[in-house]
Amino acid sequence: MEIRRIGVMTGGGDCPGLNAVIRAVVIAARARGWEVLGIEDATSGLVDLDYRSPHGNRWLTVDDVERTLARGGTILGTSNRSDPFKFVVERDGRKVEADVSDRVVENFRKLGLDALVSIGGDGSMRIAQRLIAKGIPIVGVPKTIDQDLAATDYTFGHQTAVQTATDAIDRLQDTAESHDRVMLVEVMGRDAGWIALHAAIAGGAHACLIPEIPYRIAPIVDKVRARRAAGHPYSIIVVSEGAHPAGGAQSHEGPRELGAMIRLGGIADRVRRELEPLLELEVRATVLGHLQRGGSPVQFDRILGTRFGVRAVELLAEGKVGHMVALRTPEIVAVPIAEAVARPNLVDPNGQLVAAARAVGICFGD
Ligand code: F6P
After folding, report:
1. Which end of the chain is flanked by fewer CB atoms within 10 Å, N or C?
2. Structural domains of the chain, with CATH
3. Can you give the pLDDT at residue 81?
């Protein structure tokens, strides 16, 4: 396959390090003489060529990516509601989900593109798989702060998010100790508790509730009481947004919106309401939310993003479409996208990391 023009797009929730990938793709592709179209807002810029957001489809030069390495977010814009197989369109005055993937293929051809680099999470990789089946050559680059893709040791963005959560826990430790309070901190992680677990260990939290280990209130009450009896009348509990009680469901806000995933939220407040009547201490909840998605990427995420971007261009040159770049320490390898989305990367409740956390006194509520 001869390549002259490629498109690059970012899909799903943003994460620190996306600009490092875009920068690397542009520099590496331009060095081969390829043209690079930055596609706006995930596939939205391919669904409708007249679609104009402030980002705008545009041909990218090396100058366009100058000094973007340290910037959070994505210079291309993104969306987690732009699945072309269930795109939100208006029909007879009503909003409905529709399959507009044929338009994506048509516009890909109109733009004279030879291939795409799709930077996204498991959702974007599934979309990529289906577009490949419709004839668009795609190479995938995994991104997610949640770290829930099993094919790669790490995704960029995760470490920056964990650093943000750890900094928040450090601050909450100060005020919790001053006021003898129990502080809950809700972090992101839909089905995978990596952010919560890593931040709980790094921040010296006393309990950690994750989706992989359904919790009960009684062990948490015991933990807080034991700390109080030992002369520490304050505790920090990290709660993953996807955590849920044993036999109970995840907490979410309202019904699923068209074209979107269900919005999780409210679990820290739920635990607060359950805990407070059982304790002699005040219990407060803080939701970190999108703070974890923004900010300048830490060096690990910049380096990994750069390596992924460079390797993605190499894969296209080698004709390895249908593959996703992945870190298998210390190498960046190519894995078939189908394999990459086959199973999620979840915390092993019986693994070494959870065992280490338990060994330093972290209670999982089980
Ligand atoms: O997948 C990454 C993630 O950060 C999840 O942890 C979270 O549930 C979701 O994105 C939130 O996305 P939104 O931007 O739609 O609130």
Report:
1. N
2. 5-156+297-329 (3.40.50.450), 159-293+348-359 (3.40.50.460)
3. 86
